[in-house]
Amino acid sequence: MDSLENVENNPNLNSPKTIAIMKRVLESNDQNAIANQREFDAKGILAINLMSSPGSGKTTLLEATAKRADFKFAVIEGDMQTNRDSDRLIKLGVQARQITTGTACHLEADMVRGAMDNMDLDGLDVVFIENVGNLVCPASYELGAHINVVLLSTPEGDDKVLKYPVMFRAADLALITKIELAPLFEFSADRVESEIRRLKPEVETIALSAKSGEGLDSWLNFLKSRLR
Ligand SMILES: Nc1nc2c(ncn2[C@@H]2O[C@H](COP(=O)(O)OP(=O)(O)O)[C@@H](O)[C@H]2O)c(=O)[nH]1
Ligand SMILES: [Mg+2]
Predict the structure, then answer these.
(1) What percentage of the chain reaches a pLDDT higher than 70?
(2) Which domains, and CATH codes, for the chain?
(3) How far is the CA of 86 from the centre of ligand 2 (A)?
(4) Is the CB of 56 under 6 A from ligand 1?
(5) Which of 17, 75, 117, 199 is deepest in the core (most CB within 10 A)?
């Protein structure tokens, strides 16, 4: 049988054979994602998948959340290499497990399962899953999370929503991060909000800054409103 590596190296990504293999991979991932969600549900945990470009502020937001949250959470960190992000959270007393994906540009449900099996999930209210940084592939892989949160930071530019529609369509909540820098980058939050509404009208948007603290209350209130 063809390996996924062969698929990824195949220059003809649209061949019927490639599409058939990818379909099998995604179907098996979906089964694993359903099992993950059942486990979260059984433990009364709200699972949140954070997706964005590298550097848009996912880990910093989790650090700010750790300093303010009155609910108990753990973090599963996804990166291609290093434990840097999990180390940042462990330093704040948060239970965090790092997944290093090697060459993969996204987390898959079985990787999340592996991390869950090595965590103490009892008594947690929330598990955040910080996906590998990019605005493309993570959108195609269900992990078992209840809520997908997509972050877009002001230095990335206000034109990104319609350039990466698959990612923003996957969102249940969109966060505009580093909002205090918006004037510097001539970033229009209104443009982003209206383009998200065009793609998916029900998506809520919160503008925030983990540095100035603006919008963090709205973020925490959103989380509290969704706790099991
Ligand atoms: N000015 C500003 N910088 C931020 C903010 N949030 C994160 N950063 C910075 O952005 C960089 C990347 O943040 P990080 O949380 O590691 O991004 P991640 O790759 O999405 O996890 C770091 O240098 C952070 O200090 C913010 O709200 N305002
Ligand atoms: Mg990070």
Answers:
(1) 94
(2) 4-226 (3.40.50.300)
(3) 9
(4) yes
(5) 75
Q: Check pocket membership of 54 for ligand 1, CB cut-off 6 A.
A: yes
> What pLDDT is stored for residue 10 in this prediction?
59
Distance in angstroms (rounded) separating the CA atoms of residues 62 and 197: 26
- The residue-averaged pLDDT of 50-58 equals 98
C-alpha 176/C-alpha 158 separation (Å) is: 10
Q: What is the pLDDT of residues 69-89, one digit of tens each?
A: 999 999 999 999 999 999 999
**For ligand 1, atom 9: residue with the closest CA:** 57
User: Rounded to the nearest 10 degrees, how much is the dihedral formed by the CA atoms of 148, 172, 35, 60?
Assistant: 20
| Cα 56 to ligand 1 centre (Å) | 6
Q: Which atom number of ligand 1 is nearest to the Cα of residue 181?
A: 1
Q: Is the pLDDT of residue 11 over 50?
A: yes
User: Which protein residues have their CB within 5 A of the ion that is ligand 2?
Assistant: 58-59, 85
For residue 118, the Cα-to-chain-centroid distance in whole angstroms is 20
**Nearest bound ligand to the CA of residue 75:** 2
Q: Crossing angle, helix 109-117 and helix 16-42, to 10 degrees?
A: 30
